[in-house]
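Sat 14:20. Reprocessing the chain from the morning session after the first attempt stalled halfway. Input below, unchanged.
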Amino acid sequence: MIAIVTGATGDIGEEFVKSLLSETDQVWAVGRSENKLSSLKEKYGDKIVPVRVDLSDRDDIFSFCAKIESEKPEIKYLVNNAGVAKMKPVSEFSLKEISDLLDINDKAATLICRACIPYMVKGSYILNVASASAFQPNPYIALYSASKAYLLSFTRSLNVENENITCTAVCPGWVDTQMLPKKNQGKDIKYPGMTPASKVVEVALKDCHKGKDVSVCSFYFRYMRFLSKVTPHSIAMKMWVKAIRQYI
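Finished this time. Tokens:
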């Protein structure tokens, strides 16, 4: 049996790779940097199968799905972790940036789920890494939030459609990764409730094994999820903009 992890060379992706090595015969580590994938294999050994895929490229995505359909592996875990995020108004994104973000965050995850489901054994797991940003609209990260809201909704529906597969939307808040900028105009950026990647993965795996369709890794962001349910979004957006004003 195998695990497939996209965005495998990132902080959260590598934590998933490390955690799933003991539960599977192979981990297909999916990423677009051959050098980083080779380093991952050197670090964790022959159970790592590097798979170079650019998830912003339609042909690459379809080729990877065709590889799955051709090899018909027994899949125990699928982790769609690859994602991109930028903080700026939608009007400042190029058309290509928008297309790439939606391809990576949504289209690739959706197509890979569809390709994998026929080969997932009973009692297997899909973990789609969404975000706490999925719980409400967030100006200035509007594209990211909307793309993760799609992934949250998609994953929860998928969980109902597939009785033999537990599908979990992993919704962390701020995660301490290399992707997260630490300074803005010489000032340290404060991230309330920031969590290490290892904790996100630890809680996500516990939650999927419990059959949960949503995983939120800290009390702080479980509380924020509750607030998003009871606070009108017009007010929540104003609070969000006020909190990030110094960074935009």
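DSSP finds eight helices and eleven strands in the chain.
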